[in-house]
């Protein structure tokens, strides 16, 4: 699988000939000014919740690419009202087999409201299972015990966890979460975008290393094979 980080909590994964784009927030992000949003490809856009810093570029990218929007029922319906009718609604505990693999929508402890104040449904995360590997994107979340179930559903090759603290888990809780989900390779997101979530990167990497886990902090715009 090929993973590209676009800043904040936005990243894409290419698997089985399809590009999965998660939580696109690029054009308003000062740290991602060098990213050309019009060059980003997507076959699917997976949205964890309705906050502006996770959906800002959904409409632009979806209209250009025709990508299918995958999220909870309320978010898919909200975008449907904007004329984006290629959507697949989900809710907690549900899964669906797409042409690239299987998606399971799971719980996140957070809040969710759309930029216009509309109800954003339940915030969530995604477990992606494919014949090329499996991964978990937690979305914006606090540490919660249901993460232990994630480690039982699938053997994970990697997981994408928020680490910025204040609005989500911080480093210490993310280390615990990695234990809960039984995953030793973690990609950190939702940090350093603005003042509330700035972190000490060296300290973060060290704390994961002390627990025999690898924390990857990918440069914005960089692609890795994973």
From TrEMBL:
What's the domain of life for this entry?
A: Bacteria
Task: Give the record's keywords alphabetically.
Answer: Hydrolase
Please list the residue ranges annotated as the Metallo-beta-lactamase domain: 7-190
User: Which is an annotated GO molecular function term of this record?
Assistant: hydrolase activity
Q: Which HAMAP family match?
A: UPF0173
The record, for NCBIfam families, names:
PRK00685.1 (NF001911)
* Family, as annotated: Belongs to the UPF0173 family.
Identify this protein by name: UPF0173 metal-dependent hydrolase FRY74_05130
> Which species does the entry assign this protein to?
Vicingus serpentipes
């Amino acid at each position: 699988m090929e993973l590209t980080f676009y800043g904040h909590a936005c990243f894409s994964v290419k698997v089985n000939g399809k590009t999965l784009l998660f939580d696109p927030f690029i054009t308003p992000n000062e740290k991602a000014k060098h990213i050309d949003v019009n060059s980003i490809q997507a076959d699917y856009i997976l949205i964890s919740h309705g906050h502006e810093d996770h959906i800002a570029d959904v409409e632009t990218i979806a209209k250009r690419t025709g990508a299918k929007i995958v999220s909870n029922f309320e978010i898919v319906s909200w975008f449907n009202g904007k004329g984006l009718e290629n959507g697949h609604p989900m809710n907690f505990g549900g899964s669906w087999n797409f042409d690239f693999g299987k998606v399971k929508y799971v719980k996140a402890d957070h809040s969710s409201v759309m930029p216009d104040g509309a109800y954003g449904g339940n915030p969530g995360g995604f477990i992606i299972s494919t014949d090329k590997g499996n991964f978990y994107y937690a979305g914006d979340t606090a540490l919660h015990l249901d993460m232990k179930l994630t480690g039982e559903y699938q053997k994970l090759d990697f997981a994408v966890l928020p680490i910025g603290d204040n609005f989500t888990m911080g480093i210490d809780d993310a280390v615990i979460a990695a234990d809960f989900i039984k995953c030793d390779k973690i990609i950190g997101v939702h940090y350093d975008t603005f003042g509330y979530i700035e972190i000490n990167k060296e300290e973060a990497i060290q704390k994961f290393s002390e627990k025999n886990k690898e924390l990857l902090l990918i440069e914005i715009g960089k692609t890795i094979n994973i």
